[in-house]
Amino acid sequence: MRLNGAPYDNAELKRIAGYVMQDDLLNGYLTVEETLMYTAELRLPRTFTNEQRKQRVDEILDELGLTHTRHDVIGVQSKRGISGSERKRVCVGMQLLNRPQLLFLDEPTTGLDSVTALDLLYILHALAHGKSQEKAVTIVCSIHQPQAKIFNLFDSIVLLKAGHIMYQGPRKQSTEVFRAAGFPCPLFTNPADHLLDVITPPKPNQENSDEVPLTIEQQKSVDQALIKAQPPIEIDLNMGVHKRVGQMANLPRNPPWHKQIRILFRRNLQEQYRKKILIITSVLQTVIMAVLIGTVFLDIGTSQTSILRRQPVIFFCIINQGVFGALTVINSFPVERTLTLRERASGTYFASAYFVAKILSDTLVQLPIPIVFSCVVYFLIGLQPYAAKFFIFMIFIILCSVTSTSMALMISALCRTTALSVTVLPMLLELTRLFGGFFVPPANVPGYLSWIDALSYIKYAFVGAALNELEGLRLNCDGIAVTIVNATYNITAQCITSGENIIQTRGYNYISIGGCIGVLLSFIIFCRFWAFVGVRFLKH
Fold first, then answer.
1. Domain region containing 388
2. Environment class of 103 (CB within 10 Å of its CB; exposed 0-12, middle 13-18, buried 19+)
3. Which H/E stretch holds residue 102?
4. What does the CA dihedral 343, 348, 351, 356 come to, rounded to 10 degrees?
5. pLDDT tens readout for residues 410-434
6. What are the ABC transporter domain coordinates in residue numbering (predicted)?
7. Does residue 20 contact residue 108 with C-beta atoms inside 8 Å?
8. How far apart are CA 433 and CA 319, in angstroms?
9. pLDDT in tens, 120-178
């Protein structure tokens, strides 16, 4: 294949061509104008000003008859938006923003009724025969069961059968070729239907039992007659070569990487704002859970009985934020995968820019949840009333939440589908909870399972929060002996006067608070690196 007389690569084709997929893949939370404006910012040359981009968007809205819907939301399953025809025209408009020289469309009339399908093809016909040479575009379109009016809008057609070309040439000459081959088009018959009926005759049914199907040899003779009735096609592979140098020199350059991140970050935040009911619900749910935990373990104090309650409540706080955070994002990448693949395929942005913008926006929206949780639950429980202790506790709650979402993002990016992601995630969550440092303390972990214990992010968050709370803790000896089990499984009853005794008994002192923070940060980096690998290289 040649592009203006010379071989080409995909990157070059993306810069001069647009591709409208069969499915209308759009961000349902944005309006028509916002969708086109973000696309304009990402795809128009970096030399364009905001006023020029706005003017180009207005031109596209006017050309495609979308001016009246500019402030309407695209729509999602739970919220109705624009019509199917308008969605298809938005997809076309996104590709026309940078005025491509080629526009490919995959069955654009799919899902549309006959009237809206005809309206769309009228628009495409007008674009292909634009008065201005600057706006004219060559349109290559696959079409499914076109009505006669739609068929008559095409200039040239390629008729395919089992991957072989049965006819290629002007649309007006197609019926003449079939007539010359002995298959004239009957009166009042859609020419498109007639052409397909000849090359793929329908099988007889019960109502028309007199029909006799053609044999394979008879059908081959029909195909050969059609091919012989056509003059040989001469194609000049050097056609347009004189245009190539100037054409390729003036190709637009997309915005730089850092600007792509800023644009996508704004788009993600705007989408999150449109879904604010989910954020409000998450915050409200967090406050309710924090209040319930705080009232169940209300003001545990420093008596001997508080020893039996202090570690369970810390572990439950870690589990709460370490599990719920993962569940909220497990379907993040699978839901957006098809949309991002379409945008990346058209050269809209780099995969790394999309990933960084998504991570930043999601983290910004996620951070208030563990902060609110810490502020409510810490003082209700009555943990050590020191500012440094409180902020270290909050850091571990935040790190645990971010680590769990990082693991969920990695799973969703590598598993690719929501169904597979929600199958894998519960197993990993159960393993991290089992080896979380509470049910099986670090001092009692069997050696042959130590590698699983080392991979549990819950353990590092719990051990770090426990060290923060138990270090410097002074307990009252009120005559009640607490039964404990030490590392060698010997049961003793004694009065515990400090948190350090618990730290040594449970084996929490094998790592420091700083070490726990460092491991959690390493977990976050590791998981997000593999999440990016999944987003970047898994394209199916």
1. 257-537
2. buried
3. strand 102-106
4. -110
5. 998 888 788 888 888 888 888 888 8
6. 11-110
7. yes
8. 7
9. 888 889 888 876 666 678 899 998 888 899 999 999 999 988 888 888 889 988 888 88
